[in-house]
Structure formats: structure tokens, C-alpha cells
Design a protein that fits this description.
By secondary structure, the chain is an alpha/beta fold. About 55% of the residues lie in helices and about 10% in strands. Among the domains are: about 80 residues, Gyrase A, domain 2 (2-Layer Sandwich); about 70 residues; about 170 residues, Orthogonal Bundle (Isoleucyl-tRNA Synthetase, Domain 1). Helix 7 packs across helix 9 and helix 21 runs antiparallel to helix 22. One of its GO terms (biological process) is arginyl-tRNA aminoacylation.
Length: about 550
């Protein structure tokens, strides 16, 4: 039962406000003794020309419902205190009946392409790539839970001037044997060396641009090298995606749109939108806006050209209801221009394109930069996290079965959860010890809470019945109330494209359950044992599902 909705329904019978407005006004009193929900009467003061305290008193006197132990006015608020036993009983019934589908909703439908991860070919995946990958993956899972069909697209950075630079660097300093031995490390080394040398000899930049132009024009040698770099890079990327448990529906990168850009340029020209500016072709976006650069003065394409082609292709291919781009906050201007150009082209569906920005991972307060070689490799972070998890298991539970798998789930889960637990727009400074920490507000803490619940159920070894699941103590009510909030949490996370809402919820539920565990003798043989075990089972179901929505596994033993 949705008790908040019950409050909305009761209030709506007494006031002249739409239910959506009432729902937005409902609050949670900071002091639990004041009740579980509160409706502030301030919004009605101007309408009824009365003191809000008197309005609240009038409303409270007219409402009665046996799902609440008290409905009373406290100053300008109408406070509702839920019948604890009824909430616990209703919530446990809902969770145990619906199991992992608890929280499923039909908030929307239709295809939602999610442009995410998008590493650059021939460069190792860094901690910077982790953000787009895990945020996009969690958003996809959450949107699916509320009715949409997500389409995860890995828009590979497999085209552009950087490949001319890499080809030039390989020809100057590389050799085939080294690349075959350790492709990503060596290709990355060549790329960094190119930029170091180009600072001393700017002519190298011209050579890089010339090599890319040859690639664009279909030069066989350039294409052969480019394909090789792409193939060895994808093998490495897929190994890391497997570690993270992330899959994609499409790997169509920038190169896929190479033959789809000219029709876009032609369309812009036909619609009178292209203008020349210093030899380049641009779309004017207004006096106070920078123009969108479509073609360089030498005729070569840019990110904007390819992203326009990609947006048009995705609309045709998927007929999307929304299209999401999970990319760093520094790209906000680019996506704003993308939408503006599409709008000028007459495509109103551009209103359904959303940039999902996120903050930076820094090191020592400085932005990570592949170009300058200042980078933290994701592969190494995952290995270190799993290794630390293995050490913890050896110290605390050396006889644990399936130790390798559990260490993998805990180590990788620690890295993913650490990224997702903070608001996605927050920047954070990379600290390996902080990332793989297992105490405090961490993924392993939530995983351990779930494993503790599973351990209790194994010890009890009883079939849980659905009869009489009422519990009256404050500890069980706090847990059940948190469980009842899960569908609303899923809804909020999906609407805001914000995984941290689910991560923070999982931490809060874990803390409430661990307080319950510390204060209640769960396995005592009495007439409430079945209800207590039902609460434990329901907690495990919801924690496991919350972790799944974050892309984190939930081992049953730790």
C-alpha cells in the first residue's frame, strides 16, 4: 500500500487543489513523534483568506482513516501517523509477492538510446571513462524498471584528427611487434609522445592533420592501420566491460557516420542554414551565441557534423521517445548547440534530447588528461580493488566458498558504488584507498548487510508464510517504512537520471536494518518469528534489487 498516496487522496477530498500539487507539498516531519507525513496548509491561506493553522485544524477534524493512528493539526500542518502494524503487514506482503519486481512501474514506454562510455580507440580506459559507463548503465536499468526500452550505445571515439596524430606517431616511433605484445600500452605511449614532441616541433601537428585527411579520403594504408588500432582496442575494452558487467546494444562509433555526414551538410545547405566564416562552414545560432562549426576550412568534419548525423540516424533507426547523452559537464555547450541546429533544421523531436552531465574525477586537484599522460587506468583500479577484497576475505572469512567470485563482486562493486553514491554533478578527487574502502558509506557495506540477511534466513531454515506479517516495534517499522519508499525512490531516480538517489537509499535501508538486527532477537521462537523473517527476506530482496539497478552484484555470503 502506498501510504503517501493515501494521504494525498484524503487531503484532496477536503481541499481544492489537484492531487499532483498536494503530492508535491506533502512533507516528512523531522521529528518522528510528530507523525509520518505532514500536509502544510500555507498553500491554501491565500485561496481561503484564513490563518493556515485554522485551515489545518478544519482539515484534520474532517478526516478519519483506520490506516492512521492519529490525524491532527499541529500549527499550520496536518500530521498523519501511520498505523505501524498495518504498514509493516502491507509492505511485507507487497515485497514478498512481487519479489524483484517490487518497484516496477509504468511511467513511460518507448525506445531510449543512451550514448555512454565512448572511450577513444588506442587509449586505455581511465577512471574518467568509468563515470559515463556506470552512470549510463544504471540509468538504463532504472528506465527499464519504469517501462522504457533502453538502447545502450557505445559511441566509440574511433575517428577524428587524433587518429592522424596516432598514425604519424606510430610511423615515427612504433613497431608492429611491440603493438602486438601490448597494444593499448604502446599505442598510448606513442600518442603521449606525439604531444610532447609537438610542443617542441609544431610541424608535427600539420603532419597529424594531413594523415587524418588521407584517412578521410580512403587511403588504403591509413585505413589498414586505423582498423588494426580499432580491433586491438575493442578487445581490451570488452575485457574491462565484462569485469564491470556492462553490455551494449550498439558499438556504432564516430566512424560509422563517416558516410552519413555529407547528406547532413547537403540538407543544411538546402535549408539555407550554412554560412561561411573564415573559410569554415557554420550554422549561425544568433547574436549572443557562438556559431556551430560544421566543416573546417579544409573541408574536414567535426564532432558536431558527426553528432548531427548520429542524432538523425538514431531517430530513424529507433524512433526514440527520449535520447540521452551521458557525457561530462564540460560538453554542455556542445549538446546545447546540437539541439539548436536540429531545431533550426525543423526537427522538433530535438526537445527530447537530454545531455546527462557529470562532474570530473581529479587527481591532486588537477583534471585527468590522457594527452598529458596524467591518467589513472581503470583496469588497474579494478585489479587493486579485487585484490583488497581478497585480503579482507582471507582475514575475516577464509573458509568462504567461491572466494574468487565474491572478491570480484565486492571489489568491483566498491569501485562502481563509490562513483554512484554521490550526486553525479559532484567532482571528486581520486584516492585509491578511498575508492576501495569497505567500511562506512560504501558498496561493500550494503553488500555485507544483504549477506547478513541471507545468513539469518539460512540459520532459520524456515518457509515464510504470508499470514499475519504485522510487527509493532519501532525498529521493524523503520525498516518497513524504508522498504515502502522504494517505488518512489525508483521513480525519482528515473525522472532525474540520478543513480545516487538509489545508492543513498540502499545505504539508508542498510543502516536501518543493521539497527534492527542489533536491537531485536530475530530468531526467537515465538508467534512473531515468521513476520520477523519476512522482514529480513524483504530487506534482502530490495537491497539486491537496489544494487542491481546500480550495476552491483549482491553475493549471498561474504
Amino acid at each position: 500500500m502506498d501510504f503517501k498516496q493515501k494521504v494525498v487522496d484524503l487531503v484532496s477530498e477536503q481541499v481544492d487543489l489537484p492531487k499532483e500539487k498536494i503530492s508535491m507539498l506533502i512533507e516528512r516531519p523531522k521529528n518522528p513523534k510528530m507523525g509520518d507525513y505532514a500536509f502544510p496548509a500555507f498553500a491554501l491561506a491565500k485561496i481561503e483568506h484564513k490563518n493556515p493553522a485554522l485551515i489545518a485544524k478544519d482539515i484534520a477534524e474532517k478526516i478519519s482513516d483506520d490506516n492512521f493512528t492519529s490525524i491532527q493539526a499541529v500549527g499550520p500542518y496536518v500530521n498523519f501517523a501511520i498505523d505501524h502494524a498495518k504498514l509493516v503487514n502491507a509492505t511485507l506482503n507487497d515485497v514478498l509477492t512481487e519479489k524483484e519486481h517490487f518497484g516496477d512501474q509504468k511511467l513511460g514506454e518507448g525506445n531510449v538510446p543512451i550514448d555512454m562510455s565512448s572511450p577513444n580507440i588506442a587509449k586505455p580506459m581511465s577512471m574518467g571513462h568509468l563515470r559515463s559507463t556506470v552512470i549510463g548503465n544504471s540509468i538504463a536499468k532504472t528506465l527499464e524498471k519504469v517501462g522504457y526500452t533502453p538502447i545502450k550505445i557505445n559511441y566509440l571515439g574511433d575517428y577524428g584528427t587524433q587518429f592522424g596524430k596516432l598514425i604519424t606517431a606510430y610511423r615515427l616511433w612504433g613497431n608492429e611487434e611491440d603493438v602486438k605484445k601490448d597494444p593499448i600500452t604502446n599505442l598510448f605511449h606513442y600518442y603521449v609522445k606525439f604531444h610532447e614532441e609537438a610542443e617542441k616541433d609544431p610541424k608535427l601537428e600539420d603532419e597529424g592533420r594531413a594523415a587524418f585527411k588521407k584517412l578521410e579520403n580512403g587511403d588504403e594504408e591509413e585505413i589498414k592501420l586505423w582498423k588494426w588500432f580499432r580491433e586491438v582496442s575493442l578487445q581490451e575494452f570488452n575485457r574491462i566491460y565484462k569485469e564491470l558487467g556492462v553490455t551494449f546494444d550498439s558499438y556504432n562509433g564516430e566512424a560509422f557516420f563517416n558516410d552519413k555526414m555529407q547528406p547532413v551538410v547537403d540538407e543544411l545547405r538546402e535549408k539555407g542554414l550554412l554560412e561561411e566564416s573564415r573559410g569554415a562552414q557554420v550554422v549561425n545560432l544568433g547574436e549572443d551565441e557562438n556559431p556551430a562549426l560544421i566543416l573546417k576550412s579544409d573541408g574536414s568534419s567535426l564532432y558536431m557534423t558527426r553528432d548531427l548525423a548520429a542524432a538523425l540516424y538514431r531517430k530513424k533507426e529507433y524512433d526514440f521517445v527520449m535520447s540521452l547523452y551521458v557525457a561530462g559537464g564540460e560538453q554542455t555547450g556542445h549538446f546545447k548547440q546540437l539541439k539548436q541546429v536540429l531545431k533550426k533544421m525543423g526537427y522538433d523531436w530535438s526537445d527530447n534530447i537530454h545531455h546527462i552531465p557529470f562532474g570530473l574525477i581529479t587527481q591532486g586537484g588537477k583534471k585527468l588528461s590522457t594527452r598529458k599522460g596524467n591518467v589513472v587506468f581503470l583496469d588497474q583500479v579494478l585489479k587493486d580493488a579485487v585484490s583488497l577484497a581478497e585480503q579482507q576475505i582471507e582475514e575475516k572469512n577464509p573458509n568462504l566458498s567461491n572466494k574468487k567470485q565474491v572478491a570480484h563482486d565486492v571489489g568491483v562493486g566498491a569501485v562502481v558504488f563509490h562513483d554512484l553514491k554521490n550526486d553525479r554533478m559532484d567532482n571528486f578527487d581520486f584516492d585509491l584507498e578511498e575508492v576501495v574502502r569497505f567500511e562506512g558509506d560504501t558498496g561493500p557495506y550494503v553488500q555485507y548487510t544483504n549477506a547478513r540477511a541471507q545468513s539469518i534466513l539460512r540459520k532459520a531454515n524456515k518457509e515464510i508464510s504470508m499470514d499475519n506479517l504485522s510487527l509493532n516495534d519501532d525498529w521493524s517499522f523503520a525498516v518497513a517504512k524504508a522498504l515502502a519508499d522504494f517505488p518512489a525512490i525508483v521513480e525519482k531516480a528515473s525522472e532525474k537520471f540520478e543513480p545516487s538517489i538509489i545508492a543513498k537509499y540502499a545505504l539508508d535501508l542498510s543502516k536501518k536494518f543493521n539497527k534492527y538486527y542489533a536491537n531485536v532477537r530475530i530468531l526467537d521462537e515465538d508467534n512473531q518469528l515468521n513476520a520477523r523473517l519476512a522482514l529480513v527476506q524483504a530487506t534482502s530482496i530490495v537491497l539486491t534489487e537496489a544494487l542491481r539497478l546500480l550495476g552491483v552484484n549482491a553475493p549471498k555470503e561474504m
